[in-house]
Design a protein that fits this description.
The chain has 329 residues and is of the alpha+beta class. It contains eleven helices and eleven strands. Helix content is 41%, strand content 23%.
């Protein structure tokens, strides 16, 4: 690589770091004069890199939005960060339906890595272990994700074609105010304008999304993530469970997180320590009850089952099994 070509690529790397760079600053970093800097900028423009000239006292050059991605200049650590991010994203299930895009992007970066950096990456990947199996969740369509994200940013209504968990299809209107990634899935939360209530939809079940005219105001109160978790805790399932547990909110949340159960926390008396253990009302909905007795046992806190009666029987049976195991020689 000739020295001028190397300086042109260095100029591109400087501009990619963001902001406006003055001619004097660039000349000093490149070890050339201002006229040469301008000539190097012309070289980048000839390569379709969108370099913009900014006039004024604090003017200089910056990268503008282009019709295609300009050549990227990544340091060793930046290249490793991008590749490890792609690996982690695939493991967590946070990819779109174009899952091959992550693989091809990683392959392109690896192909141009210096051998020394590639060896470092291989060493990391070979020594890296995960405690959970790779995510095998259905992934959302990239076009749907981008359309809804744009609607969230600009507070625009959307129309979606949605299939529920039973496969029933419907056309919905939504005022979306947040996208949430939770446990390997993507969700959009917003208000259904026809009924005025919050709704949460899985993005991978949305076949099509269209932006509609108009705008809306995002509601005050909990953020999108908290609304999604609250929606999970109050979703319609077969069993409605009500418990009273003696402990603190933190102790209960350790085994029954916000996405599983709601905790009614009464206001503490004047001068009382909010961390003091007391009886708290816990409500949740579940399709099955057999997982609850072990969870309640792991809390190691006094509790009362208010409903359903079936759960009381399961708790007693679980306690009897534990007792029988403890008495075995």
């Amino acid at each position: 690589m000739s020295r001028p070509t190397g300086r042109v690529l260095t100029l591109l790397e400087l501009l990619q770091s963001g902001g406006i760079r003055t001619v004097a600053e660039l000349a000093d970093r490149l070890g050339v004069d201002g006229r040469t800097v301008r000539r190097y900028v012309d070289h980048l423009i000839d390569l379709d890199v969108p370099v913009e000239a900014v006039r004024g006292r604090y003017g200089g050059y910056r990268l503008g939005p282009g019709y295609r991605l300009p050549p990227l200049m990544l340091s060793d650590d930046e290249a490793l960060a991008v590749l490890l991010g792609l690996v982690a994203g695939r493991r967590a299930g946070l990819m779109t339906t174009a899952d091959t895009a992550g693989e091809t992007a990683a392959a392109k970066i690896r192909r141009v890595l210096p051998e020394r950096v590639a060896r470092r990456l291989d060493a990391v990947l070979e020594s890296l272990a995960f405690t959970a199996s790779p995510g095998e969740f259905a992934t959302p369509d990239a076009g749907v994700l981008l359309t809804i994200a744009d609607a969230v940013r600009h507070r625009r209504p959307v129309s979606i074609r949605y299939s529920d968990r039973d496969g029933r299809r419907s056309e919905r209107r939504l005022h979306p105010y947040g996208i949430v990634a939770h446990s390997g899935r993507w969700y959009v939360t917003g208000t259904d304008p026809e009924i005025g209530e919050d709704r949460t939809f899985r993005l991978d079940r949305i076949a099509d999304a269209r932006t509609l005219p108009g705008s809306f105001e995002a509601p005050e109160g909990p953020g999108p993530a908290q609304r999604v978790l609250s929606g999970f805790a109050t979703a319609e399932y077969r069993h409605q469970v009500t418990l009273r547990i003696h402990g603190t909110v933190e102790q209960i949340r350790a085994r029954l997180p916000a996405g599983v159960a709601s905790v009614e926390e009464p206001a503490p008396a004047a001068g009382a320590d909010p961390e003091t253990e007391r009886w708290l009302r816990v409500e949740l909905r579940a399709e099955r009850l057999d997982w609850l007795p072990p969870v309640l046992a792991s809390l190691d806190r006094p509790f009362v089952v208010e409903r359903p009666d079936e759960l009381r029987g399961l708790v007693i049976a679980f306690a009897d099994r534990l007792a029988s195991y403890a008495h075995q020689a």
